[in-house]
Amino acid sequence: MSSDTGITPADMETLKSNLDQFFLVVMAMIIFLMQAGFAFLEVGAVRSKNTTNILMKNVLDCAIGSVVYWICGYAFFNGKSSNAFCGASHFFLSNLPPDQYATFFFHFVFAATASTIVSGAMAERTNFIAYFIYSVVITGFVYPISAHWAWNEDGWLKANSWKPGTIQYRDFAGSGVVHMVGGAAALVGAIALGPRQGLFEKDQERIKGHSIPMVSLGAFMLFFGFFAFNGGSQAQISQPGDGAIVARALVNTILSGSVGGLTVVLIYYGFTKKFSLLGCLNGMLTGMVAICAGCDALDTWAAVLTGCVAGVIFITYSKVLYKLKIDDPVDAVGVHYGGGSWGIMAVCLLAEDEGVFYKWDGDSFLQLLWNLVGGLVITCWTVLFTAPLFFGLNYLEFLRVSPATEERGLDKTEHEEEAYPQDNSWGGDRNVQPTRSREGNEMSDYSAGNPNVANYRPNPTAHRNRSATAYEMPGNASNYQTTDDRARSGTMAYDNPL
Description:
By secondary structure, this protein is mostly helical. It has 19 helices and 2 strands. It has a two-stranded antiparallel ribbon. The protein is globular, with a radius of gyration of 25 Å. The model is unreliable at 424-498 (pLDDT under 50).
């Protein structure tokens, strides 16, 4: 080779190493964008008075996560000096070979994902300092050690089973390691916090978020991120067959996600005769979570089946938790824990030429049993850490904000930076005098100074059920109320009173 091209075998190895590192870094950057997806999805799913709080938490998932993972997270996960329980070297990335920095960055974004899952389930009522504490615990201890068990060569789930070398915990992209960890912590946190004020009072329906477009934007960003999340878990691209595995992972991801969404839409339509956008989005996310474990190994028909079951599981979790009066504003538990727990079973049942449905032998059943053991232990490990933390903080009255703070909204009380300020401080003329609408009704200073409200146009249909004039906000729901008490309450623009 060297005589023909001038490229030596050593040069080729260097090129391959650089290519693999570049692949990991690019995939990690795309996965990092999922933080924005989580942020928009959670923002749209909560009331407008808590928007800044949600955004701040998602920003700090990155900021806290990167620092904590640098200090100890990566060391516990992948430290060179390690045992079956955890790693024990490279704290602060000390003595980490430069060619391992890409691996650090890739697994940091996984850790940040596990942490941010929890914030959605605990939205609108969590003390900000308590959030800071549990983010450190999940990113620095809970996730890295469970990831070590499953993905490090010395980890006991990977290295020690009934048949070492033949049977080992199988979870290609983190259905259990990432999503079950995040989902289990989210469930514990939601139980410890209790529901939002007024949610389960008599005849009270689910509390609606304030922006379906934001939820949709966030979901699309998560869909995009899942392609890198699953495809990038191959962790290299320079060896024969790597490209095919990455491509299979992407195809299975979109199929499982799509069928998960369609399943939820059809089930909802069967019961309500309505087509639910939010249900479709959550169903797609659940399907993508479920396929993480086996996206590299399932045939396409198995990915379709995985997504179909995932859709049913999402609906089941969502309904059961609501019946149990467990408040999960974004259905994080159903999407991540429900989808993840099904995913670690699906890979053992449906893996091409290896799963129970193909082989039906002792080894395939042992593989399924070992994955179930892994899922159970990961769940117990997460609960073991998070339950004392959340319930301890709650006992000290440090987990949840006061009822007055919750009622007023966390943007104003925790941050003093309202996402939708009502005092014209981010635009408009404070000195604008009251104006009159085209129907002759006087509008408030707030309405006159607000560039959106000023463009309201009368909605004649509003007069059918009430005498007062309603104004239709361009690009928003009709009959939007502009009274100060309605605006400050943060209720959703889609909450049409008619």
